Amino acid sequence: MVLRYLGQLDDGEFEGALQELRLTRSIWTIDLAYLMSHFGVRHRFCTQTLGVDKGYKNQSFYRKHFDTEETRVNQLFAQAKSCKVLVEKCPAKYCCFAPRGHRCFCRTPDYQGHFIVLRGYNRATSSIFYNNPAYADPGMCSTSISNFEEARTSYGTDEDILFVFLDS
């Protein structure tokens, strides 16, 4: 969605990047940062956890492939600097949305990890506007800032945010 917006999405190149970066169905925020780097998109990835939180091993979404994913994801964090992927342990005011339980507006109840693309906010109505790529038609959605804040600080999010800059 972001690459398409930036005019950098050719289906063949995108599929090639997915294969080169070995991205499968288990996509972590660090994978998205590597994808941005691959396409030369200026970015900054802020997280509370530089690597994988071992507590995720007991979460249903991660359980099946945790051991292989833990190794893969930790390697990505370790190699980030040399691969020109900007990752920092830092708090961010508003972060990646991955709400708890069934409040994530997704189609399957065991699907808990995903991301949204923030598009804007309205201070007067205390609303956040976003696109949800988990939908077949990821049109504009909105939620209250308080719901967004509760969701983004839920266990499992690491309060991740991937800033993507338009001057890429």
From TrEMBL:
Entries under Pfam families matching the protein: Guanylate_cyc_2
Q: Which InterPro entries match?
A: GUCD1
User: PANTHER family per the record?
Assistant: GUANYLYL CYCLASE DOMAIN CONTAINING PROTEIN 1 GUCD1, PROTEIN GUCD1
Protein's recorded name: Guanylyl cyclase domain containing 1
The species this protein belongs to is Rousettus aegyptiacus
